[in-house]
Design a protein that fits this description.
426 residues; mainly alpha; Growth Hormone, Chain: A; 2 domains; globular; cell membrane; MFS_dom; MFS
C-alpha cells in the first residue's frame, strides 16, 4: 500500500507525452456539442434506472436486500466488462465502442418491460452494464480529443453540466411520465433517449475514429500495447501521481454514495419543507454551478487550489447534514456545497489525468478512475449502512465523514505544497 505522504498530487500542465486537443474549429465545436447531448441522454437513462430499478424488483416480490444487490451487481459487472471492452478501441475505434455502449442501454430499455422475474431483470442489467463500462470513461476522453489545451477544462466542465442537468431533470420527468402513462411508457422514453444518444454519437467526428482503422501515427501511439510493468508504474513517476488521483476519487465517491443513498435520513428529520428529492436537486444544482465556474480555473492551471477547496466544500456539505437544522436555508446551502465539491473534485481528477497521462494510456487511466467512482459509490451503500446501524445516532456518521473529508483536504493541500516546493527546488 502506498503511504499517503508518498503520493504526489502534482498538477503540471503537460507531461509524459500527453496530447490534448487533436481537432479544432467548427468541426470540433459541433462534435463537442453532440458529445454533450449524448452524455445528457446516457446519464439521464442511468440516473432514472438508479431510482427505478429497486422499485421494479421489489414490485416482483424481491426483498429490499435483493433490490440493493441488483445495483451492486450492475456496477461490479460493469467494472469487469470494462477490462474486456476498453481494449477494443484499438480494433473498432472509440466512437463505435461508445455507440455499442449506448446500444446496450437501448436494448436493456426495450427488454425491461418483459422482465417477469428477478433473474431476468439481473440479466438485462448485465446487458446495460456494457454502457456504463465503456461510455463513461470514453466520453471524457472524447471531449478532450475535440478540445484545445487552452479550453479542455472549460469543455470538461460544460460536459459535466449536461450530466448534472440530466440528474436534476431526468428522474422527475421519468417518474411523472410513469405515474401518468404507466411503466411501459417510462421504459419507452428510456429507449428513445438511448436512441437519441446513438444518433448524436453517430453524427460526431472524433479524431480517435482513426484508431479502429489503423490510420495515423497518433492513433497508433494511443493504442500501442503498454509496457509489461506494474499497472501504475507505466504512467511515469512510479505512478504515484495517478495513485493520488485514484485515492482522492475513492474518498470523493464514497461521500457521493453517502449523500445519494442516505441524505434522506437527515432530510427526513427536518421539518418537512425540504424532501429528499428536492435536496438531491440542490445537490445537482451545485454540480452544475461547479461545472460552469471551475473549468476556466483549471485551464489557468489552478487545479492545485481548486482540488483541496472542493474536497473541503464537499466535507462541509456532508458535515452540515449532521448538524441541527435550524433553517431551510442551512440545509439547502449544505446541499449546494456538497454538489459543488463533488463535481469540482471530479473535474480536477479528470483534468490531471488528461494533462499528465501519456496519450496511449489516457483511456486506461480514465477507466481506472471510473472504476474507482463505481467502487466508491457501491461500497458506500454497504459500509455506511453498517455504520448507521452501529452509530448511537444518525448524525454521528455525517459528522464523522465530514470531519474526515476536511482533514483529507488539509492533507492534500500540504501534499500539493510539498510537491510544488520539490519541483521548485530542482
Amino acid at each position: 500500500m502506498v503511504p499517503f505522504h508518498a503520493v504526489h498530487f502534482s498538477v503540471v500542465r503537460r507531461c509524459g507525452g500527453s496530447e490534448v486537443g487533436k481537432q479544432s474549429g467548427k468541426g470540433s465545436t459541433r462534435s463537442f456539442a453532440l458529445l454533450c447531448v449524448a452524455s445528457f441522454f446516457m446519464y439521464g437513462v442511468n440516473n432514472v434506472m438508479i431510482s427505478r430499478a429497486p422499485l421494479a424488483v421489489m414490485g416482483m416480490g424481491a426483498s429490499a436486500a435483493a433490490a440493493g444487490f441488483q445495483g451492486t451487481f450492475f456496477i461490479v459487472f460493469a467494472i469487469v466488462l470494462r477490462t474486456v471492452l476498453m481494449p477494443l478501441t484499438s480494433r473498432i475505434g472509440t466512437k463505435r465502442l461508445m455507440i455499442l455502449g449506448a446500444a446496450s442501454f437501448a436494448a436493456a430499455s426495450a427488454l425491461f418491460p418483459f422482465c417477469a422475474t428477478y433473474g431476468m431483470f439481473l440479466a438485462v442489467r448485465a446487458v446495460q452494464a456494457a454502457g456504463l463500462a465503456v461510455f463513461w470513461p470514453l466520453s471524457v476522453s472524447s471531449v478532450v480529443d475535440v478540445s484545445d489545451e487552452g479550453n479542455v477544462g472549460w469543455r470538461l466542465g460544460v460536459s459535466r453540466f449536461a450530466t448534472s442537468a440530466s440528474m436534476a431533470v431526468g428522474p422527475y420527468a421519468a417518474f411523472a411520465l410513469g405515474d401518468v402513462m404507466g411503466t411501459g411508457w417510462l421504459y419507452g422514453a428510456l429507449l428513445l433517449a438511448s436512441c437519441l444518444a446513438i444518433v448524436a454519437l453517430a453524427a460526431c467526428k472524433l479524431p480517435s475514429d482513426a484508431h479502429g482503422e489503423g490510420a495515423g501515427a497518433a492513433g497508433k501511439s494511443r493504442v500501442a500495447r503498454p509496457p509489461r510493468r506494474g499497472a501504475l508504474a507505466q504512467f511515469g513517476g512510479g505512478g504515484l501521481w495517478l495513485a493520488g488521483v485514484l485515492l482522492v476519487t475513492l474518498v470523493d465517491s464514497a461521500a457521493a454514495g453517502l449523500v445519494m443513498h442516505f441524505s434522506a435520513i437527515a432530510v427526513g428529520e427536518f421539518d418537512g419543507s425540504l424532501n429528499a428529492a428536492s435536496y438531491l436537486s440542490l445537490y445537482s444544482i451545485g454540480g452544475m454551478i461547479a461545472s460552469l465556474l471551475l473549468g476556466r480555473a483549471l485551464d489557468r492551471g489552478k487545479c492545485g487550489i481548486v482540488l483541496p477547496a472542493c474536497i473541503a466544500s464537499f466535507g462541509l456539505g456532508v458535515l452540515q447534514l449532521g448538524l441541527p437544522h435550524a433553517s431551510f436555508v442551512g440545509l439547502a446551502v449544505g446541499g449546494v456545497l456538497a454538489g459543488v465539491g463533488n463535481m469540482g473534485v471530479a473535474l480536477c481528477c479528470m483534468d490531471i489525468i488528461t494533462r499528465r497521462a501519456p496519450l496511449r494510456l489516457r483511456d486506461t487511466a480514465l477507466g481506472y478512475r471510473q472504476s474507482c467512482v463505481d467502487i466508491g459509490i457501491a461500497v458506500a451503500a454497504t459500509a455506511f449502512g453498517a455504520a448507521f446501524d452501529a452509530a448511537p445516532a444518525n448524525y454521528v456518521v455525517f459528522l464523522a465523514w465530514g470531519a474526515i473529508m476536511l482533514c483529507f483536504a488539509v492533507a492534500v493541500c500540504i501534499n500539493l505544497a510539498r510537491a510544488a516546493k520539490t519541483r521548485g527546488g530542482k
